[in-house]
Design goal:
This is Holliday junction branch migration complex subunit RuvB. The protein has 365 residues and is an alpha/beta fold. The protein has 16 helices and 9 strands. The longest helix has 18 residues, at 238-255.
């Protein structure tokens, strides 16, 4: 069998494994509807913010000290996976400082002039939230160095030998940068933040508190076991917990009396194909392809992506991080390998002698 035949067979298997495309309830990104709901559910101050205990304690000290001095707060860098509360914390910083907030993102700033226009319109003490700061263009990044440190930017007027740099003084402001890829930030930019914090994934008990709070705000009746069921399938992410809560609420209103119990939550999430560990259809498709088509691996990422009918980047950035974090998939020099836990999760018996060296190492054979 040649490679084309193998690719066609894998693509056919992908259709059986994945089926038609659908929105991922466990996607940690936020669409328009999510943003509207999050605005209603978002905590307004540090006292309401659930989880991230160390970050809250440290940030509280930074903000209280700045208020006592009557000064603007130091620049803040928040890193961590999507959906953990970076945008929420930026809004809380502005609220705690009694200042307005301006929100933009790195991909929206492709030229130094874009950044200069934003900075020149800031008010004294205003909070500028820059999401995905690592995706900002290099010229804008270099302009930001001076703005953060000296509250000044040089605006270039003209071109060539006749170009002139006009210094523009800026009012003191607080920059809150958010990134999912802190390692991509250049050291000169990272060093200019007075406070940096890494957002961790939430524990199930913390997510239960998030679900209870959100249910109260949504006027939904939920018992402790129902909240625990939703929290356990939320992949350690509050945004996903709130999204699953809304879908379970819909199921409870249509199929039951509106009250969310453990059985109702389980039945609802089964309809939406979110299993007991938080895996959705794409996650299971990756595992099933790895186990059933490739005997548990090792297999290259590109081949695995073809097998599930997705782009390489989708598998690598969307499904793989959670599967690795759950101990269901491992990266080896020879490719991706399923762990014994993956075989157990899908109810399959792992081969003891078959497979490549990477797989044999995992099974101890």
């Amino acid at each position: 069998m040649n490679w084309d035949d193998t690719t066609d067979e894998a693509a056919g298997a992908a259709e059986r494994l994945v089926g038609p495309a659908a929105e991922r309830l466990v996607d940690s990104g936020a669409d328009g509807e999510d943003q509207a709901v999050e605005a209603a559910l978002r905590p307004k101050d540090l006292g309401e913010f659930i989880g991230q205990e160390k970050v809250r304690e440290q940030l509280d000290l930074v903000l209280r000290a700045a208020r006592a001095r009557g000064a603007t707060a130091d620049h803040v860098l928040l890193s961590g996976a999507p959906g953990l509360g970076k945008t929420t914390l930026s809004m809380i910083i502005a609220a705690e400082m009694g200042a307005p907030i301006r929100i933009t993102s790195g991909p929206a700033i492709q030229h130094a002039g874009d950044l200069a226009a934003i900075l020149s319109s800031l008010q004294e003490g205003e909070v500028l939230f820059l999401d995905e700061i690592h995706r900002m263009s290099r010229p804008a990044e270099e302009m930001l160095y001076m703005a953060m440190e000296d509250f000044r930017v040089d605006v270039i007027v003209g071109k060539g030998p006749g170009a002139t740099a006009i210094p523009l003084e800026l009012p003191p402001f607080t920059l809150v940068g958010a990134t999912t890829r802190a390692g991509l930030l250049p050291p000169p930019l990272r060093d200019r933040f007075g406070f940096t914090a890494h957002m961790e994934f939430y524990e199930p008990a913390e997510l239960e508190r998030v679900v209870h709070r959100s249910a109260q705000l949504l006027d939904v009746e939920i018992d402790p076991r129902g909240a625990a069921e939703i929290a356990g399938r939320s992949r350690g992410t509050p945004r996903i917990a709130n999204r699953l809560l809304r879908r379970v609420r819909d199921y409870a209103q249509v199929k039951a009396d509106g009250h969310i119990t453990q059985d109702i939550a389980g039945a609802a999430l089964a309809v939406y194909e979110v299993d007991g560990r938080g895996l959705d259809r794409l996650d299971r498709a990756v595992l099933e392809a790895l186990l059933k088509l490739f005997g548990g691996g090792p297999v290259g990422l590109s081949t695995l992506a073809v097998a599930v009918g997705e782009e390489r980047e989708t598998v690598e950035e969307v499904a793989e991080p959670f599967l690795v974090r759950e101990g269901l998939l491992a990266r080896t020099p020879r490719g991706r390998v399923a762990t014994p836990a993956a075989w157990a999760h899908l109810g399959l018996v792992p081969p003891r002698q078959a497979g490549g060296k990477g797989q044999q190492d995992l099974f101890g054979t």
